[in-house]
TrEMBL record:
ATP binds at residue 45. Residues 16-306 form the Protein kinase domain. GO terms for molecular function: ATP binding; protein serine/threonine kinase activity. This is Serine/threonine protein kinase. The chain holds residues 119 to 435 of 565 of the full protein.
Length: 317
């Protein structure tokens, strides 16, 4: 009697039990799993080799190389990398709260404090990547921002009032924390998906890779891998957190591209009526078409609306 081999036999051989699907992307599916030996819950990103050409296979290795080097509380931690004839398996710590995107849908929108609470954590991960590692993420979006709910313990001086999102609508910032937690789940925000990320600096010397001296201007100017692309995306995420829908949207991809390239977005009424000038100003400085005028990550943390929030956090939080 022949037992049909399990599709992901390799996982089982390495003591990873796997369960239901948590999410998927263009080339991958992500399953909930467990490291049988340690008992730890994991997320297993499975990439089918059949669907990938050689350069895409290379980018899987790049993703793993970058992931291995990262160590930050707001970035998903890498555990292991396995492969067999058919699949690559990237094993990471599980973020059980799921995508931040679903939290936005649950709440319809976040309160300003909750938006700042989330965006500051995202920004912490970006500050680490840009300033300490020299990596541009390049794919910052709600689907790649996950919640790890375990760490969240509302202390007596941190998030004070938990209100229903309806109550928040009429409430302005009162110098205390207004958290629009209408059934949503709060936790540590973790950045995931380094599939498009790119190493731009040598980490030790903090100099650009290779010699720039002989590079053509069009290549030097190529801003595809500039850190500022993450800052634009940060602006899109912040906008979405504040009002519940993205700044740029169009069914037709040409129209959408046109709007983005011109920076055509609005603080649409009535959704933005109640949102503070400080929040709008922060969004404006991130969604700046001219990348030189756009905030970099250090300027983001100096933004008055952000700074006033961080200043009122307890020091040890
Ligand atoms: P892709 O490159 O295919 O977009 P991602 O790494 O973004 O792959 O993972 C796809 C989806 O799987 C995510 O949007 C999320 O829903 C889920 N996911 C990924 N990593 C984890 C994790 N560590 N914990 C929980 N869910 C995850
Ligand atoms: Mg993704």
């Amino acid at each position: 009697l022949k037992i049909k081999p399990d599709k992901y036999q390799t996982l089982l051989e390495h003591y990873y039990q796997y369960y239901e699907k948590l999410g998927e992307g263009a080339f991958s599916e992500v399953l909930r799993g467990k490291n049988v030996q340690s008992g730890e819950d994991v997320a297993i990103k499975i990439i089918s080799k059949k669907k990938l050409d050689t350069s895409q296979q290379q980018s899987v290795f790049k993703e793993v190389t970058i992931l291995r080097r990262l160590d930050h509380k707001n970035i998903v931690s890498f555990d292991n990398f396995l492969e067999d004839d058919n699949y690559y398996y990237i094993i990471q710590d599980l973020c059980d709260g799921g995508e931040i995107f679903n939290q936005i849908v649950n709440l319809t929108y976040f309160s300003e404090d909750l938006s700042r609470h989330v965006i500051c954590q995202v920004a912490e991960s970006i500050r680490y990547l840009h300033n300490e590692v020299g990596v541009v993420h390049r794919d910052l979006k709600p689907e790649n921002l996950l919640f790890d709910p375990i760490d969240f313990t509302p202390s007596k001086d941190f998030p004070s009032k938990l209100r229903k999102s309806d109550d928040i609508k009429s409430k302005k910032d009162e110098g205390e924390f207004n958290y629009g937690v209408g059934g949503g789940c709060i936790g540590t925000v973790k950045l995931a998906d380094f599939g498009l990320s790119k190493q731009i600096w040598e980490s030790k010397t903090k100099t650009p890779c290779g010699t720039v001296g002989y590079t053509a201007p069009e290549i030097v100017k190529d801003e595809r891998y500039s850190k500022k692309v993450d800052m634009w995306a940060l602006g899109c995420v912040l906008y979405t957190l504040l009002c519940g829908f993205p700044p740029f949207y169009d069914e037709k991809i040409d129209e959408l591209t046109e709007k983005i390239s011109k920076g055509q977005y609005e603080f649409l009424r009535p959704w933005w009526d109640e949102i503070s000038a400080g929040a709008k100003n922060c969004v404006l400085n991130l969604l700046c078409v001219n990348s030189h005028q756009r905030y970099d990550i250090n300027q983001f943390f100096e933004d008055p609306w952000i700074k006033s929030f961080l200043d009122k956090l307890p020091q040890d939080a």
